[in-house]
Specification:
The complex is a heterodimer of chains A (415) and B (63). Chain A has 415 residues and is of the alpha+beta class. Helices cover 48% and strands 15% of the residues of chain A. A four-stranded antiparallel beta sheet of chain A has the order 9-10-12-11, with no helix packed on it. A three-stranded antiparallel beta sheet of chain A has the order 1-3-2. A three-stranded antiparallel beta sheet of chain A has the order 6-8-7. Chain B has one domain: Alpha-Beta Plaits. The longest helix of chain B has 13 residues. The chains are: A alpha+beta (415), B alpha+beta (63).
């Protein structure tokens, strides 16, 4: 940090004198890292900071200049100030619309459709695919996505967005800059759109659809980051109110009680959570703040055939367990855990691998020679010396065939 | 030397017996390798899977 204010390069020996002996290793690690990032310039025994880095870092810290790395707050106060609650509600509403659309697409129930841009992104990322009649259908990847935490979901979607941005010839640097800028913004403040580049203005619309920012009108000159955006790079929960509006305190921690007899009680009134549960639970009855159902063979098999794994189900049950359940050890009843895993195994009794069966070798030596080659490639799935045949995967076939042809050609040449 | 294209099925021996019975009705097995491995025709795989599933479903009971 001291280097920041030094105009001229400094002797490395002087620098080393600042560091005490215990911290020597850290110091050297830091130096080599900085050098690799081209932040420091090293000439002979002198050490200095890259001039450009020095200038901009100084500016960023002192807040001087007209840089906009932390966003530019709107000049005038908004006439009708936007409350935090409103922003949160908006973010939750948008986000859950997307997720709910994904869930319900599998069950055939109609639900509110998110905008075209969102649908396109979901399609591109492979979370959903056009199914029968052109309607979007959730894929197994999508099901797995649903069981993640909101934070992971958000980043996954944004990463996909970055891929998409590349294809749309958007300036990736600007896109990234904007996302990082959003994450450092203050919740509940309005920021001006004037300082944004062309790409970033286009992004505004997309991010509005995802619920990351809020604008009064599409043409509005100011925007508000929501909690989804401001917690991007922090570990705070992105959707504090996502688990429902009433009595959210307990629900934020978890709402599922699972008994050893496979009965499941979920204290929630949130349609999204109910829909997610419906993926692997047979729901029996529904009360204003409680859903009762049971985990059984059919429901789990349905989930498995959708591409959800047993581990994911158990993981979900664990992370969303009700505080009451946390007293139990282990958290999810062992019987249920084991049974879910058994159901998964049952489905996988038959394992199939495509490939070629090599058989009728003329001599034992021939067989061993080819088998050794295939083993080196790591493509042998099964072999039997007595039968003098082995089975190799599809990828290995071209290589093995080439190998045998070369060998027979060489043998013919000799003989 | 011969190379035959196919799908290698890995399963337990009980399931293999089911496969063998099914094979008597409509042949799809190329080579019976050992207790746990069978090579079948690649284009029959989907049908075989469906039938095995249906067969196993008969043996499960729900409370």
């Amino acid at each position: 940090m001291n280097l920041l204010w030094l105009e001229s390069p400094i002797q490395t020996s002087t620098l080393a004198a600042w560091v005490n002996r215990e911290a020597k290793k850290t110091y050297e690690g830091a130096l080599s890292m900085l050098a690799r990032l081209h932040i420091t310039t090293r000439s002979d025994a002198k050490l200095g900071l890259n001039p450009t880095f020095k200038a901009s870092f100084r500016q960023a810290i002192t807040g001087g200049g007209i840089h906009r790395s932390f966003g530019v707050p709107a000049e005038k106060d908004d006439k009708a100030a936007v409350t935090l609650d409103m922003l949160d509600a908006y973010a939750v509403e948008r986000w859950e619309t997307i997720l709910h659309y994904m869930v319900s697409s599998g069950t055939g129930q109609a639900s509110a459709k998110p905008s075209q841009g969102v649908l396109f992104l979901l399609g591109r990322s492979g979370l959903m695919a056009a199914g029968r009649g052109g309607a979007m259908q959730i894929t197994s990847l999508g099901f797995q996505f649903l069981l993640h935490s909101p934070h992971a979901q958000l980043w996954e979607l944004l990463l996909q967005y970055l891929h998409l941005a590349e294809e749309r010839q958007m300036d990736l640097v600007e896109v990234l800059e904007f996302l990082l800028m959003l994450s450092t913004m203050e919740l509940g403040r309005d920021y001006s759109t004037e300082s944004l580049g062309e790409t970033q203005n286009a992004m505004l619309e997309d991010l509005r659809d995802y619920g990351l920012i809020w604008q009064r009108k599409a043409t509005s000159r100011r925007f508000y980051p929501t909690r989804l955006a401001t917690t991007l790079t922090s570990s705070l929960p992105p959707l504090p109110t996502a688990t429902g509006t009433a009595g959210s305190g307990a629900q934020a921690q978890g709402y599922i009680i699972l008994e050893t007899n496979y009965r499941l009680y979920a204290y929630t009134d949130n349609p999204l959570q109910t829909a997610v549960l419906n993926l692997f639970v047979t729901l029996k009855s529904r009360f204003p703040n409680l859903v009762v159902g049971s985990v059984n063979r059919d429901s789990v098999r349905k989930a498995l055939s959708d591409g959800i794994t047993a581990d994911q189900i158990i993981q979900y049950l664990t992370t969303h367990a009700h505080p009451q359940m946390r007293k139990n050890n282990p958290l999810v009843p062992v019987t249920v855990q084991d049974q879910i895993r058994l159901w998964e195994l049952e489905r996988n009794r038959l394992k199939s691998q495509e490939g070629y069966l090599y058989t009728s070798f003329s001599s034992q030596a021939d067989y061993e020679f080819v088998l050794n080659y295939a083993k080196q490639l790591g493509v042998v799935l099964w072999d039997n010396t007595a039968k003098r045949s082995f089975f190799a995967s599809m990828e290995g076939h071209a290589n093995i065939r080439g190998f045998i042809e070369r060998r027979t050609a060489a043998a013919a040449g000799n003989g | 030397m011969k190379a035959i294209k196919g799908v290698l099925l890995t399963c337990d021996s009980a399931l293999k017996q089911i496969l063998l019975t099914m094979n008597e009705k409509q042949s799809f097995i190329i080579e019976d390798l050992d207790d746990n491995h069978v090579v079948i025709k690649a284009d029959e795989e989907y049908r075989v899977r469906l039938e095995v599933e249906a067969e196993l479903e008969k043996n499960s009971f729900d409370a």
